[in-house]
Specification:
It is a single chain. By secondary structure, the protein is an alpha/beta fold. It has three domains: 203 residues, Type I PLP-dependent aspartate aminotransferase-like (Major domain) (Aspartate Aminotransferase, domain 2); 86 residues, Aspartate Aminotransferase, domain 1, CATH 3.90.1150; 61 residues, Alpha-Beta Complex (Ornithine Decarboxylase, Chain A, domain 4). Helix content is 37%, strand content 14%. The protein has 15 helices and 14 strands. Strands 1-7-6-5-4-2-3 form a seven-stranded mixed β-sheet, with helices on both faces. Helix 11 runs parallel beside helix 13. It is globular, with a radius of gyration of 23 Å.
């Protein structure tokens, strides 16, 4: 992999000059175990290294490379993960008493950003076929239905955007092209949390939101690429957002972005400029072989799923989390996610062939026993207060078993998958309390 990428060149030159580092960070580039020579590249915004939010040097050049690679009107980098990109997307459209039409499989980062920005969600619940065990797709028809209702009621003008998560944590992909067309018909932009889909642009078929009509989307480069955790991109297909993206990021982002994270993005760009697309496609082919084997074993897999992951719904198979974990460990596999509902195995071009062989051996050993099952819970909500009002109200922490009838004052999630079980402003009832306890959540903040 070439070193001739903008940030690597700039940092190599800085190291070669052997300056007295009378600036942050405090380690001064010392070789510290276990990081070794990598510490020399952990610098700050000094002459020659550029500044992420005011970039006009190597970081700007790197962003221009990503803009070309993803064929967008503009792409900017985040060292604060897709969380920062999500916050920036929402900041760019936020207005007084604004609302966001959003899929309920939304990540907690978006809910917290909405509360801080005073945006109120209008929920669309995932559609799930009876045979599916996990959270389903966001239906374009349901999006249209809600937007038409808003239009008839004269409240459409308060909507700022349509917001969809695709792929979701389990890899389920919604019909982004159709949702984009519908959103645009009603004069709204479409934002997509594509944190799990940075690789989708480099497949033979069009899967990436920027190819399908979304106005803004985020990609986490660390989930399926070679970048360090916290590396992400914010893309736009509409030039009007380009001047706003950096400023929106500064509202939430650190003024000290990590240069090692950004250097790993530089390496990701080099990977994609060389044989990255070919290696991604090879990984997708191997994953399809695994999915075919899983289908032959009797698993009911999500119909529209991220091609570079294997999601195994466990409910109704005779397997639960405890028994399946033992099987995974027997084959020396560490999963991304495991619950009684299902198991998620994430692959990337940097997995070894041995990893695929272990997964094949795992599937060979599985026997499916078709049983009645309870699908992954999607619990309808009862909204009592606005998101922001509940978020900022005086609160107290109580055991969940004593919270029935109270109003939640915080987002409550299990992470992974990071999908909120409870939103601020919603009343807590018996069913949701049972789900919280089953998820290992025993204390919750409620409005006083």
């Amino acid at each position: 992999m070439t070193d001739n990428t903008p940030l690597k060149r700039a940092l190599d030159e800085y190291i070669r000059q052997d300056y007295a580092r009378l600036h942050m960070p405090g380690h001064k580039g010392a070789s510290i175990s276990p990081f070794g020579e990598l510490m020399a590249y952990d610098v700050t915004e000094v002459e020659g290294t550029d500044s992420l939010f005011e970039d006009d040097g190597p970081l700007k050049e790197l962003e221009e490379i990503f803009t070309r690679l993803y064929d967008t009107k503009g792409t900017v980098m985040s060292a604060g993960g897709s969380t920062l990109c999500i916050q920036a997307m929402l900041r760019m459209v936020a207005k007084k008493e604004g609302r966001i039409l959003a899929g309920r499989n939304i990540h907690a980062a978006a809910v917290n950003a909405m509360a801080l920005l005073g945006l109120e969600p209008v929920w669309v619940y995932p559609n799930r076929k009876q045979e599916e065990r996990l959270i389903g797709e966001i239906s374009p028809d349901e999006i249209r239905s809600v937007l038409e209702k808003e239009k008839q009621e004269g409240t459409l003008d308060s909507l700022c955007a349509v917001y969809v998560t695709s792929p979701d944590y389990f890899g389920v992909m919604s019909d982004i092209r159709s949702i984009a067309q519908i959103a645009h018909e009603y004069g709204l932009p479409l934002f997509v949390d594509n944190a799990h889909g940075a690789h989708l642009h480099f497949l033979k078929e069009e899967y990436h939101p920027m190819q399908l009509g979304a106005d803004l989307c985020c990609d986490s480069l660390h989930k399926t690429m070679l970048a360090l955790t916290g590396a992400a991109l914010l893309h736009t297909s509409d030039a009007k957002y380009c001047p706003q993206m950096k400023g929106a990021m500064t509202v939430f982002g650190s003024t000290s972005p990590n240069y090692l994270i950004m250097l790993s993005m530089d390496s990701t760009a080099a990977f994609l400029m060389q044989d990255g697309a070919e290696r991604i496609q090879q990984t997708v082919t191997r994953c399809e072989e695994l999915r075919q084997k899983a289908r032959e074993k009797g698993f009911v897999l999500p119909q529209h799923c991220d091609p570079m992951r294997l999601t195994l719904p466990l409910a109704g198979t005779g397997w639960d989390a405890q028994s399946f974990r033992k099987l995974l460990r027997k084959h020396k596999i560490m999963e991304e996610y495991l619950s009684d509902s299902g198991c998620v195995l994430l692959f990337s071009p940097f997995n070894r062939e041995e990893d695929f062989k272990r997964t094949e051996a795992l599937l060979d050993e599985i026997l499916i026993q078709n049983q009645p099952f309870t699908a992954f819970p999607i619990v309808p909500s009862e909204k009592i207060m606005s998101l922001r009002e509940a978020f900022l109200s005086p609160k107290e922490s109580v055991p969940v078993e004593k919270a029935e009838g109270r109003i939640a004052a915080q987002v409550k999630i299990t992470c992974p998958p990071g999908i909120p079980l409870v939103m601020p402003g919603e009343r807590l009832h018996k069913e949701i309390i049972k789900i919280l306890k089953n998820s290992g959540i025993f204390v919750i903040d409620v409005v006083k």
